[in-house]
Design a protein that fits this description.
Elements (H helix, E strand, L loop, with lengths): L2 H8 L12 E2 L7 E2 L3 E12 L4 E4 L6 H5 L5 E8 L3
Antiparallel strand pairs: 1-2, 3-4, 3-5
């Protein structure tokens, strides 16, 4: 999803409505949880073969390693409470 798409989706929504992020908790019942959003930041992300999804680039990663990784890119990250 691009920021433009998110803005389009939110256009016309109640601006006083709460914002939450939903995900599968991973329990036996496959419960969908929806923690509230605590902050939004621009971060570097990169693809992870281990997790099979993008991960946030850590501050202690070597810049030279990042330069050689074509999957490194900027993204808007929406953080939930507790993270």
């Amino acid at each position: 999803m691009k920021v433009k798409q998110l803005i389009d989706w939110l256009h016309g929504e109640d601006q006083d409505a709460e914002v939450h992020i939903a995900y599968n908790y991973g329990d036996h019942h496959r419960t969908m949880v929806a923690p509230s959003v605590s902050r939004v930041e621009m971060n570097l992300i990169k693809d992870s073969d281990y997790f099979r999804m993008p991960t946030i680039v850590e501050d202690d990663e070597e810049p030279s390693d990042l330069d050689n990784d074509p999957s490194v890119r900027q993204a808007v990250i929406i953080f939930s409470r507790g993270h």
